[in-house]
Amino acid sequence: MKKMNSALIFFAFFFILLKISVTTLSSAQEQQVRPALLGQPMPDFVLPSYQGAEVRLSSLKGKKVMLIFPRGYAGPDRWCTICHYKYVELVDLEKATQIREKYNLEILIVLPYPRNTVKLWLEVLPEQMLKIKNWKYPENLEQLDEKGKQAVERYRQIFPRDFMLSKDNIPLPFPILIDADHQVSSGLGLFTTSWGGSEVEQNIPAVYLIDEQGILRFKYISQNTLDRPEYDYLLNILDWIKQKKL
């Protein structure tokens, strides 16, 4: 009797392990992401958000989706400043014009890091905005040589607007998705450890625009770290999608 009970316990335990393995494998296969092709359904994925809830892309059908992959790190222990600037610029645009409501749009930000690193990316936003301000308005402007003054002018062109944030009020209007194992970023061909002259885990910056049926209508993959589409340009694309011209 004891031998029979032991055998039953063993088979039950084996069955549970087998079920877990099959479930895990099915989940991994379901999650597998392939490169996205224009005019084709955007590959589905599910990722946890920094805010807490999981987000499945296909659950957003019925809305347009702006899917943004910031670069993240630009070097060891050095964040990409323009990524932070573009994020804050988008936050300000949403606050001023409610683009999500206007375009029936959801905006998703995807970072290729675990939660603790994403937390750092967000916490450093005020410091990054202050850094940009100091680049644009150095105290010793009159003492700079011609090369230095040209650099200041270039910063003012790259970062035309001024933003200031408080550490106590980090803006989080959009889901920040945590791609900790890089499965989505790698599947789309964006994750790399060498780009733009730096050796660090990062994404090639990219923007995808998806229509209400889940079809990819536009994608922009940066050629260098300064190569980013302006939001006015992206809103024009959204207008074309809305009018069925794209």
Account of the protein in words:
With 246 residues, the chain is α+β, with helices and mostly antiparallel strands. 42% of the residues lie in helices and 20% in strands. It is built from eight helices and eleven strands. The chain has helices at residues 2-31, 81-97, 99-103, 115-123, 125-136, 146-158, 183-187, 231-242, and strands at 46-48, 54-56, 64-69, 73-75, 78-79, 105-111, 176-178, 191-195, 198-203, 206-210, 216-221. Strand 8 and strand 9 (198-203) form a beta hairpin. Helix 2 (81-97) crosses helix 5.
Can you summarize this structure?
The protein has a single domain, classed as Glutaredoxin.
Give the radius of gyration: 22 Å
Q: Supply the CATH class.
A: Alpha Beta
Order of helices and strands: HEEEEEHHEHHHEHEEEEH
Sheet-strand content, in percent, reads 15-25%
Question: What topology emerges from the helices and strands here?
Answer:
Layout: H1 2-31, E1 46-48, E2 54-56, E3 64-69, E4 73-75, E5 78-79, H2 81-97, H3 99-103, E6 105-111, H4 115-123, H5 125-136, H6 146-158, E7 176-178, H7 183-187, E8 191-195, E9 198-203, E10 206-210, E11 216-221, H8 231-242
Parallel strand pairs: 3-6, 6-7
Antiparallel strand pairs: 1-2, 3-10, 4-5, 8-9, 10-11
Characteristics:
5-stranded mixed sheet, 246 residues, alpha+beta, single chain, two-stranded antiparallel sheet, globular
